[in-house]
């Protein structure tokens, strides 16, 4: 799916956060990281087609509570669900997209749909 300058694509496979990043990198892309609502909507639609939740290329591994893109860039756009991010049990450093398009922080060890951007 193309939005502006970006192409979002999945092969339907799943992986934890590190596997997802590596898979996209090996394919010449990055783990999908929406910069606006149109990009978030594209990711949401791809996920809905596969009936799976994807990880985004966003986390707060470096500084708890400060979510950033993989390149370290601060978030200019976010779409958190109500009462999120909540760092439940102190282990939620990665971000998944719910079927509503809203974001939830989640453990990076979980397996999620891999969606890359090019």
* Residue runs with pLDDT of under 50 for 5 or more positions: none
Q: Which structural category fits the helices and strands?
A: alpha+beta
**What is Rg?**
13 Å
* Number of DSSP strand runs: 10
Q: Work out the oligomeric state of the chains in this entry.
A: single chain
**Total number of helices:** 2
Estimated helix fraction: 10-25%
Overall description:
- Strand 7 and strand 8 (103-106) form a beta hairpin.
- The strands form three sheets. The chain has a four-stranded antiparallel beta sheet, sandwiched between helices.
- The protein contains two helices and ten strands.
- The chain has helices at 17-26, 37-50; strands at 2-3, 6-9, 14-15, 30-31, 55-59, 68-69, 94-97, 103-106, 112-113, 116-117.
- With 118 residues, it is of the alpha+beta class.
- The model has no long low-confidence stretch (mean pLDDT 97).
């Amino acid at each position: 799916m193309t939005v502006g300058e970006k192409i979002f694509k999945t092969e339907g496979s799943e992986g934890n956060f590190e596997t997802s990043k590596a898979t996209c990198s090996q394919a010449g892309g990055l783990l999908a990281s929406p910069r606006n609502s149109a990009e978030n909507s594209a990711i949401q639609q791809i996920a809905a087609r596969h009936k799976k939740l994807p990880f985004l290329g966003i986390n707060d591994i470096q500084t708890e509570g400060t979510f950033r893109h993989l390149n370290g860039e601060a978030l200019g756009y976010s779409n958190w669900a109500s009462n999120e991010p909540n760092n439940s049990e102190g282990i939620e450093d990665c971000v998944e997209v719910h079927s509503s398009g809203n974001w939830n922080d989640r453990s990076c060890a979980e397996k999620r749909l891999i969606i890359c951007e090019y």
